[in-house]
Amino acid sequence: MHSARRVLDLTAVLVIAAALVAIQACDDESTTAPSQGSIEVTTSTTGVEIDPDGYTVSIDGGTPEAIGANDSQLFGFLSVGDHEVELAGLAGNCGVDGQNPRTVSVTVLSSTPTTFDVVCRATLFDKIAFASFRGTEQDIFAMNPDGSGEAQLNSEAGSDFFANVSPDGLRVVFTSTRDGNEEIYVMDSDGQNPMRLTSAAGRDREPTWSPDGERIVFASERDGGGQQLYIMNADGSAQLRLTNSAGFDTQPAWSPVDDRIAFISDRDGNTEIYVINADGSGLTRLTNNAAVDAQPAWSPNGQQVSFSTDRSGTFDIWLMNADGSTPTPFIEGTAFDRSSTWSRNGTWIAFMSDRDGNFEIYRVNADGSGLIRLTNNPDFDQLAPQAWGPNR
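Above: the chain's sequence. Below: its structure in token form.
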């Protein structure tokens, strides 16, 4: 009996000792292992044209993980302290209202919430902007490439015309007389938040965007005499004169791929098309013909220029290479065909024509086939060289 009791007592001691060792091991681990917590990331998206694919979240520059446009994800096993959280994969028309990336502090054994508020704005992706006298004065409209979905973008007093869509599809720059003189304005793609960019005694008109949307070239009479070309930042700052000819320089069109600007001028005695770099260098004459060559518009790859010319006796749309070589008739007839603009993927060219008795907007494939009429209104519809919004 005594021997059995001693065995039991020894066993108990061993069990207790093992338990103490285990407890000590846990205590040692708790003092040496890093404390951990988690971050709960929530996305809250409002607006229009919300990206159905959602976004991605990365912690401290790690592997991005998918998250929906209105969703929550828990990111655990994070060390206590500050972590950088970034929301990415946003569509071009969407932006985070607040800091992104942002610093989130993690505390031990708790979940720290952070919410990314995303606002998505209306865009003019694959839309055609145009000016029209649908009422008592010109206003800016937009429509789908097949002519459907016409929508008026603004309705302020005064005439608004020469509308060009920014490369990101989020803004429209245009000329307006709403303040009594032709000045240049910019507005959101839904017509909201109009802002005046120029204020000069002479007319400021015909603005077009640089490829990055950071600058605008335009024609102005501000220094007296004929129109000359000027460049400014997209917010209207840093307005600088680009050309200085004895005649007029006007109808600028900025190449979508570089700093070349096509325009028309009578500096050599006839209305011809020229190209100049945005820093004022590299002036080159592209056309040389007794007829009027006007309204240049670049192809999206910058390799061709469409233009309007009366070489055949009436105004038609022609094409030429970007260096002025191989001018070729594209749209011909007895009508006045003018003001061409390319779709941003190079698939189509839109232009204005009075072939059906009134100036309307038409679309044709880039190979000249598939002509269709897009507008049908008794009033005048007008296009500009960057009227077509960027394709997704």
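The first helix runs from residue 2 to 32.
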